[in-house]
């Protein structure tokens, strides 16, 4: 099935855009923590020009729906909605945790991946995924925002060799080292649009799209607790 999908992601320090046309991917990616709003639209223009295609020629627009930086996720979905609305395109939201699992498969062929993004405040955005024969990723652990020690206490051993992805493994290396199963360090630190667009293609083939109005982010953390400074209670 011929398909043309544009994907973008600004949910973490990495800013990325990818265009999938059939089996070919045009992509741009740059770690630019404070420059997403400056970088992402020029990246969109670059991949469209490289592929010699217009936004209106696309079948869908995909985006990293989170979890990740609250501001970054909002920037990404806002820009994606604007582009999709202007070109009258359906949208596809893709998990950033699952996108990192897909990246591990792309880079090393890993089929059992555990993703952890540093969520600050002593927690990680967490998900464990096993790749299926059809290319989809099954959730072994449901996506959640959780303290590393809680993960350790609630986990049980298995005989798989998991591959790690994400910034949470560096931030909480000591705590996560106590997990009761084998984890091999992977190369993937951030989600990337070139992996998001591959997962979006699978969703497109199954008719899983939403309108601009129905597209929404996934923050996982619904309630943010602010610690007051001493003397300011």
Automatic annotation (TrEMBL):
Describe the location of the Gcp-like domain by residue ranges.
Answer: 30-226
The keyword tRNA-binding belongs to this UniProt entry's keyword annotation: no
Name the keywords, alphabetized: Acyltransferase, Transferase
For this chain, one GO molecular function annotation is: tRNA N(6)-L-threonylcarbamoyladenine synthase activity
**CDD domains per the UniProt record, alphabetical:** ASKHA_NBD_TsaB
A single Pfam family, by name? TsaD
The record ties this protein, via InterPro entries, to: ATPase_NBD, Gcp-like_dom, T6A_TsaB
Q: What is this protein called in UniProt?
A: tRNA threonylcarbamoyladenosine biosynthesis protein TsaB
